[in-house]
Q: What sequence folds into this?
């Protein structure tokens, strides 16, 4: 499934939303209705009580981050979240430290994909000559990741 089926706001908002139980029920009112693994979902659907979100990624409040800006610049989810498709339980794949943010901001070319469709493609690999092409693309489209303190500490 495309990540954006559930994380619907990731291209439009600073935050990537967590889907409500309704999203699961679009299918699981028909598929695997009685599976033990879906007991929590069925319970939540019956009671109307949302399932609690176990938050994994957590920047400190003093650091500002916006998903839409990054996803609209065609950076793949995998650059920051790793191979989510291969994780049975989601874990943090990258340090999310200031040095990590800045490493990419100084040289983003290899993380930028040619189109918006491939942004959620987990097994995407850069074709040969990709960085050169993307360095041109960055110039043409005026993509300019900030390095000044006030961009991330507002
Ligand atoms: C677009 C349809 C669709 C949506 C939406 C969907 N699922 Fe599924 N889900 C499936 C299919 C298809 C399977 C595989 C069923 C099978 O192999 O028997 C599955 C399997 C599962 C399983 C494994 C069940 C088992 O028997 O091992 C779990 C757990 C699960 N889904 C949870 C969720 C949760 C939680 C959500 C909402 C966040 C969700 N699903 C949303 C289609 C969907
Ligand atoms: C069927 C719906 C569904 C799909 C499709 C889906 N996710 Fe999720 N995702 C969830 C739900 C629900 C949670 C929260 C789980 C929890 O709280 O334990 C979650 C959690 C996450 C988290 C952890 C958030 C945090 O810090 O707590 C990340 C990162 C994530 N998803 C990325 C992705 C990526 C990347 C894809 C595409 C490869 C994807 N998701 C596809 C439903 C989905
Ligand atoms: C440039 C890096 C980057 C990219 C690209 C990125 N994320 Fe994230 N993601 C983060 C960071 C950093 C956080 C933690 C944000 C916080 O705690 O404020 C996060 C948090 C999340 C969360 C938890 C909800 C939230 O907003 O805190 C989900 C779900 C998620 N990301 C899904 C995705 C999906 C799906 C994609 C691809 C469409 C994606 N992310 C692309 C860096 C990224
Ligand atoms: C994989 C590459 C990559 C990583 C990692 C990354 N960024 Fe960015 N970021 C970019 C690019 C590219 C842009 C420029 C987008 C544009 O100009 O369209 C950007 C723009 C920004 C902006 C300016 C736009 C805005 O929202 O005001 C901020 C702030 C920002 N990033 C914060 C962060 C923080 C904080 C982190 C670490 C938690 C981070 N970024 C990690 C690539 C990255
Ligand atoms: C691209 C985004 C970005 C830029 C630009 C940036 N920072 Fe940060 N900064 C972060 C993030 C993210 C963290 C949180 C890191 C963590 O939790 O490990 C952080 C953490 C910090 C901390 C706390 C460190 C600690 O050890 O607790 C200080 C102080 C700081 N930044 C100062 C600055 C100064 C001064 C500048 C300008 C020279 C700057 N930052 C530029 C993203 C940025």
A:
């Amino acid at each position: 499934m495309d990540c954006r089926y559930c994380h619907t706001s990731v291209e439009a908002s600073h935050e990537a939303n967590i889907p409500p139980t309704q999203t699961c029920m679009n299918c699981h009112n028909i598929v695997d209705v009685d599976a033990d693994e879906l007991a929590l979902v069925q319970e939540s659907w019956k009671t109307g009580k949302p399932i609690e979100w176990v938050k994994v990624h957590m920047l400190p409040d003093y650091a500002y981050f916006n998903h839409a800006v990054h996803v609209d610049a065609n950076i793949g989810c995998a650059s920051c979240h790793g191979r989510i498709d291969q994780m049975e339980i989601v874990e943090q794949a990258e340090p999310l430290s200031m040095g990590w943010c800045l490493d990419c901001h100084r040289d983003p070319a290899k993380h930028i994909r040619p189109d918006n469709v491939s942004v959620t493609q987990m097994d995407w690999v850069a074709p040969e000559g990709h960085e050169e092409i993307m360095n041109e693309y960055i110039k043409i489209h005026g993509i300019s990741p900030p390095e000044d303190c006030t961009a991330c500490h507002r």
Observations:
- The chain has a mean pLDDT of 96.
- The CA atoms of residues 34 and 42 lie 9 Å apart.
